[in-house]
Amino acid sequence: MTDKKNLWISMAACSVAALGILAVLLFGVKPFTAAERRIINQSGNVMYVTVMPQDSAVLRAVSVDLSARELRSEELKTLADKMLTTVQDPSQDGVGIAAPQVGINKRVICVQRFDKPGEPFEAYYNIHIDTLMGPLKSGREGCLSIPGYYGSVQRNETVVVRYVDPSTLAPVTDTVQGFTAVIFQHEIDHLEGILYTDRADSLWQTN
Ligand code: ZN
Prior knowledge:
It is a single chain. By secondary structure, this protein is α+β, with helices and mostly antiparallel strands. The chain has 2 domains: 1-30; 31-205, Peptide deformylase (Peptide Deformylase), CATH 3.90.45.10. Helix content is 37%, strand content 27%. The protein has helices at 2-27, 34-41, 56-60, 68-71, 74-88, 178-191, 196-199, and strands at 96-98, 108-112, 121-141, 149-164, 171-177, 202-205. Strand 4 and strand 5 (171-177) form a beta hairpin. It is globular, with a radius of gyration of 21 Å. Bound molecules: zinc ion. Zinc ion binds at residues 143-145, 186, 190.
């Protein structure tokens, strides 16, 4: 009798799982949350940049990897384009930006590659630090989300990062050195909810 009851429970569980899979196949799972899609699809190419302390919830949260569907989505292309426009806009004039700084807790950053010819800005998806190497060096840092301040922060000279190639979606590792390595460390910290002020030896106001 118990075996029969267990069988019915198993069959019911299988039916619920099958219905769930069917629903996903029929209706799909939209990339990004509704709130994230609202931010991405807002009119204008320069996005609102989150600032401390009023936007601390999004700036202090840990960001998650983009799903396979999000990696292939138009929304991600729009987000990366708008982040690239925002960081280079004269109102910001930054050297890097991370998705939490536009209100989205997904692992997307843009970095100015001072180590490449023409010093282009590039976007990186599902980026993580693989290895930190080399001596620690002190340098001056600022942050679009903490306007009016600079600080002295110790960072590793060399960083190995891993991310997903935007066109092939294949995993890539890249070894970066010098000031560009500092930008990568600063932006990837944002994805962990860490701000440079957490690491700074000293802080000072710009004016
Ligand atoms: Zn920052």
